[in-house]
């Protein structure tokens, strides 16, 4: 509820009303020729008081509004810095993921090349009744698995 009060009091409409009240009090209270008008003479002192109170209130509310806007700007700067930091972290993560993907693709291509070479070497061996694999073939197969 207090936030609503400050929001309304420091709004453009509230400040405009106070400024109008200040100007009216200033004109009636401090204009030398208006003192001699019989209808306004009793209100000169009241108009001076209203002008001074309105000026003080207007100054306070403008100061409050400026301070509130500064705090909001600082909060937005902090939010922006946090978001920028998150974006930087995401960018570095994406770059690292891209590097890892390239390494994985290179290793997969090398493994496919080894498998192709192994298949070609096995295809060149003569077919027989039993198992024709020797120790070199088994070692090659283990190297591919690594």
SSE layout and pairing:
Layout: H1 2-9, H2 12-30, H3 44-124, H4 135-145
Structural class: mainly alpha
Mean pLDDT, rounded to whole units? Answer: 85
**Low-pLDDT segments:** none
Radius of gyration (Å): 43 Å
Count of DSSP helices?
4
- How many extended strands? 0
The geometry reads as rod-shaped
Q: Could you spell the SSE succession in H and E letters?
A: HHHH
Largest sheet: none
Give the total of domains: 1
Tell me what the structure shows.
- It is built from four helices and no strands.
- It is an all-alpha fold.
- It has one domain (2-145).
Key structural traits:
82% helix; rod-shaped; 4 helices; 146 residues
Provide a short characterization of the protein structure.
This protein is 82% helix and 0% strand. It is an all-alpha fold and 146 residues long. The chain has one domain (2-145).
